[in-house]
Write a structure and sequence with these properties.
alpha+beta, 38% helix, globular
Length: 193
Amino acid sequence: WLRRLDADNPHDIEMYKLIEAQSEVAKWMEKGDMTIEEVKELLSNEGQVFYGICQNENQDRIDGWISVYEPEAELVDRLIEQKLIGSKDAKILEISFARYIDPNVLPENQKKGLVSSAVRQICFSLSEKEKNVVIVAFTNPHNLPSEGVLKNAGFVMGGKILYDEDSKEEDNFWVLDKEELEKALRNKKAKQV
């Protein structure tokens, strides 16, 4: 289940901070240790939507988050310059995500596929809502779990790019392939039957 994160919900704020502070997440994120006020401001940002990933239908516990936003214009210009995307004619959205890894549960017993499923749902919804949309993501080349999520959600690697012009290392650039997304959705449905 997915729901919007609420900047006024203490649980949402606490879980966002907890997820981002985990060592497996913190090493890939730029924000660092955020204050409650900074998290509230981030979750209230009109240009960025945060969805909570919930394992139960009550949606009372957040097990991860997905964020959708328009990338910086300068980054879009460089993507076009390097021929990684076509043009600005399409609406370009960037997606990022993180999940809570319960320290009290062995890695092999952690629920698998939760984030991939949520990313597929969001991408499908965005693609249905807006026909001319290009959904992109960026990963550090060493962040194999996130790359697995993107592959399982129908993304294909489109190349490498410096996320910020002053970055020390190029990130992998991913773009949603709508045919791959549909295939992933069909495969998931077939497994459920």
